[in-house]
Structure formats: C-alpha cells, structure tokens
C-alpha cells in the first residue's frame, strides 16, 4: 500500500503505530465477529509536514461504518449538555439570530436543536439512519441522511456551517473543506472541531488511534488547510482539557496559499513511546486483584480492549447510553456484553477501568455514591506503569 502523505504528497512517511483494529465500535449482542469485523490499522507520520494519518482506511466502507451504528454523543449527564451550551455561547458571540445553518454530522441531534432555537433554518447532514426527524421535531430543521461531500448537495447557501467531530473521518480533507467553503455565503462563518494530535502524543493515548479516523490534526495544520479552501481563522478554542480543539473560521473572497507547517516530530520516538504505553497498560491491569469491568462502550474503550491482545480481566462493559443496550465490544479472543451501568450488580467486582475517560470524574463519583469500594482507574492513568521507561513529550520533537 502506498505511503504517500495525503496532504503534501511526499512518499517520505513512516509507520508509527500498527494494530489489528475493530471496524465497529460495538456490534449487536450475540454477534459472532469474523475476519470482516477487523481491519489493519496503520498510522503513518509524514517526515515533511508532520501530518499523522491512517493509511489503511478503505473508503468503500464509509457508508457501512456510519449508517447503522448507534447514535453517538448521546448526552447522559448535565456536563455533556453544558458543553453544548458553552459552544452555543461561543457561537452566539458572532451572532446566531437569523442565520441559516449547515450542520455536518448531526450526531444525536441535540446541538441542532439548540441551534434551531436561535437560527432561522438548520440543515443537518448525517448518514446515521437512527437520527430521524422525530428526534428533531422543530419545524426549522431538515435532516439529510447522507455524507456531505459536495456543495451541490446543499439546498441553499449558509451564513454558518458547524462541523463537529467529522473532518478527521474524511479521506479527502482538502476537497471537503473546499466544499464546506463553497456552501457558505460570502463572509459566512464555519466552526470545525476535531480531536487534537498534540493531546494524543502528550498523553500517549494510543487508544485514540482507531480505524474510523483518517486524520490526526494540529491547529496549525487545520488552519493552513482551511486557509487554502478560503476559510481564515478568527478564533482557536481549546476543548475538553486539550483533547479537542475548535476553529472558528470566516470565508474570504479568495483561497489563501498557506504553507503546511514543517514536521516537528521524531517518528521513531513517537512509535516507541506509543508502544511502551500500550504495554504499560497491560502490565498495570495484571496488578488488579480480582474481577474487573470496563466502563464506557466508546471508541477508545474498544481500541483499548483490542490493544491488550486478549490479556485482560474484564467480564462486561458498563454504559449510561440507552443506545448501547443489547450491544457488545469485541476483540480477536471474544466478546464483552454492554450492560446499563445503573442496573449492574457491582458486588464481587474489584476494579473498574473507565474507557469513557473524558467523563472519568463524573463516572467515578457515581460509582462511589453507589458504595463501590474497589479500584477505579481511567485508561489514561494506566500509563503510570511506564516507570523508568517513561518518555516525555520533548523526546518526540525533531
């Protein structure tokens, strides 16, 4: 398979992470995962521009991957809706009243409904067939169950486009950004939100590398790509303690020929550190004194499970999202059923590992309030097992 960088085109790229990866974040309960449920995950780093990308994604799988999955990002705690409100407030600073809005990637539909309370009209593009009009009953919301790929798909031009947790999934990101820009009126705004590559490397978060993400982006790279599409940065918003970032961009008359930043990473050190963190997690899990559960049927939890090569103490997965009921996580050695967290009997459980680590504090508090006295660890804490082999982020830089 070619190793050319999907942004700058150079063939000077190096693999920094490889694994057999699950195609799906969850499967229906009692499914029997076969070879088709897995794919090789090959994460490459460009020596020239430093872009990190999944060179193994098969574009033919895109509709299958997103159309039938349970709805993502269902708010199951006030902290999740508070984040939506915070973002709405940031966008409100630029004015929402009277705007026509394009939302690419509607998720659970909650944010579209908040936008609709302010805007004149909201068009939502979301391939997941579980997001239906019944979930967004507002008369000024229209849902288009399709991947957004060209401006010709849009029924109108917009004064605001919102694209949250989508750009990292798009194979041809420059073309996608151009289509987004073309869908805007002159001087229109775009908000694009993605996971942060810097966070993954600083936190050694190998479980955030998974098959459905094509691009792992920094603000500098995304800003340059957006400028080339005619979208110039107005604000940078760090999100979720640095796990994500958002760019508020404005459409200008002509694309800006912005150069991509030069590579600042050492591929060998990145690869070695991520692999060490993966092995450290397995070593730390081996110290648990009894039966354990995994909390969160999330992409990170699924990748974490698969990265352990079957050496884990888990008997089940807990989750607060009703859409995860009757689902399961899986790896090459077996399956783990997902149970509603509130109803699960915790007696006899000695440890709980939180895969939904962005909500670890809330989950831990809930477990303690239920009287659970065993060990609670987030998957982010398992890198403590690196010990003397711990490699600081400074070792990544060229």
Automatic annotation (TrEMBL):
GO terms for molecular function: 2-polyprenyl-6-hydroxyphenol methylase activity; 3-demethylubiquinol 3-O-methyltransferase activity. This is Ubiquinone biosynthesis O-methyltransferase. Keywords: Methyltransferase, Transferase, Ubiquinone. The keyword Methyltransferase applies. InterPro entries: SAM-dependent_MTases_sf. The gene is ubiG_37. It comes from mine drainage metagenome. Gene3D superfamilies: Vaccinia Virus protein VP39 (3.40.50.150). It is an enzyme of class 2 (transferase). Its EC number is 2.1.1.222, 2.1.1.64. The keyword Cell membrane does not apply. GO terms for biological process: methylation.
